[in-house]
Amino acid sequence: MLGLRFRTTGVMHPLQCVLQAQRSLKWGPLSSVSWLLLRTCRAHSSVPSSSCLSSEGQSSEGVEKDFSSRLAAGPTFQHFLRSASVLQEKPSFPEVEDPPPYLTGDELLGRQRKVYLETYGCQMNVNDTEIAWSILQKSGFLRTSNLQEADVILLVTCSIREKAEQTIWNRLHQLKALKTKRSRSRVPLRIGILGCMAERLKGEILNREKTVDLLAGPDAYRDLPRLLAVVESGQQAANVLLSLDETYADIMPVQTSPSATSAFVSIMRGCDNMCSYCIVPFTRGRERSRPVASILDEVRKLSEQGLKEVTLLGQNVNSFRDNSEIQFNNAVPTNLSRGFTTNYKTKQGGLRFSHLLDQVSRIDPEMRIRFTSPHPKDFPDEVLQLIHERHNICKQIHLPAQSGSNRVLDAMRRGYSREAYVALVHHIRECIPGVSLSSDFITGFCGETEDDHLQTVSLLREVQYNAGFLFAYSMRQKTRAYHRLKDDVPEEVKLRRLEELITVFREEASRANQTSVGCTQLVLVEGFSKRSSTDLCGRNDANLKVIFPDAEVEDVTNSGLKVRAQPGDYVLVKITSASSQTLKGHILCRTTLKDSSMHCLT
Ligand code: 5AD
Ligand code: SF4
User: Is the CB of 402 under 6 A from ligand 1?
Assistant: First the structure.
């Protein structure tokens, strides 16, 4: 698999009620982005205090009058500070008996309003969409997949590169026409921006794009029912408060596709690494892990529902550290991968990723376990050993390198040298024979010379990854690189280098995948191939797509029984051809994960 992975993502307007909630973050840059605002129109100097202008400029006097006067007597700064922390303790905010004093319980209910959710960017955003929907569903909203019938449109956004944000701006312009058309209807259309872009741009979006009614940062989804209740009356509302402990541990995400064979389980959020090019620590906040018990609960439920694969999800998934219980907080030092350092003071104690992986993999022997996205610094031997030993942990590791040049790695503040990275690759391959490796690379980072680029090319040749995600550098405000370095590689050079890396990646991945031809592989069936209804499609252990004709085969656990493979079945496939992204073959039999692990597949 080779592709460009997408983490799809003005001046302050006088805000009548801007509530700055500075959390006591020890970390400089984040403290300035931790705020929450509620925008009401009652204090517009040009607007009578008893009436409100909706975001379309329509008078909504009357219906909202009562609401407005309650709002006037409404929240204080202290209330928001309090509610921000209370919300994290109360799992079912929409159903709580004590709604904020300026809203009745009824106003917090969705009143069957139809919500259309659109997701951009990485897998974390897909999971966030499921969390946001779970919260809204409990609050009485309905979901629609038809944009035309939506009462509320929520875009879950990404900020990682400029292009991801541009996609959202373009989408907002399209939605503007839809909103204007609906402005005089009984239920006007409301539009919200969720996730990283809401966090990064905050009030700037509300000012620049009047189409937008609601902003909710990645840690504010519990507040969506309240924000929508405010929006319902024609106000704009926002909560972009970053949290030190929000993990949505108690929210069971609603799986978007009920027939899916696999699910994503969020285990940690945020990032403390502060790579110099990256906006993530600013939009998603500090690293925090979900308690082990709640993760195991969710995986158990998914297993009971018959799902056959879970992918543990997090910005730095293998930096997992559950210190939710006092007894976990011992002084056990952290084992990093050899030759790797951190940009922050080394942490101690807590239940680590190896513990979680061990527990998760014991739940269901027929459930495949994957994880993404890890950081190369957190691969101590105990994690590698576990991946090797457990038949249901996939032998597939994503190992983002970003560059093959020491000079550039240093400027990126990645905390390792090329040599340490290559040594880790060798060590991983020794510990887990046959492991599949993938990576992320950025071309044209500040100061990258032709020689630096050639060193990246040589790293791709040396490691021979099975898959890669390649990006041209996109300067992001607030990052260290923005403040200290010069974005001095011309756009056309960045793109030319990107093309070169794509070509090399394809060649190496094709070569690596060719070694599968003639082998028998275990494939988890996902359904029919998109291109042909006579072919089935699934994924092998390395997460590579495998396509094979649908045919009647024997079931190895039920000798003599002839079956046709269904989504969620494990089958053995003899591989007959390979490209850089796909394998093809023919089906041999239906089997189980456990059974296939006891026979050496060749
Ligand atoms: N420009 C280009 N790519 C970036 N990434 C992160 N920040 C940037 C940026 N500013 C890439 C990294 C990361 C992946 C998720 O996105 O390769 O691993
Ligand atoms: Fe961004 Fe680096 Fe954190 Fe990955 S590890 S999210 S690249 S800061």
Answer: yes
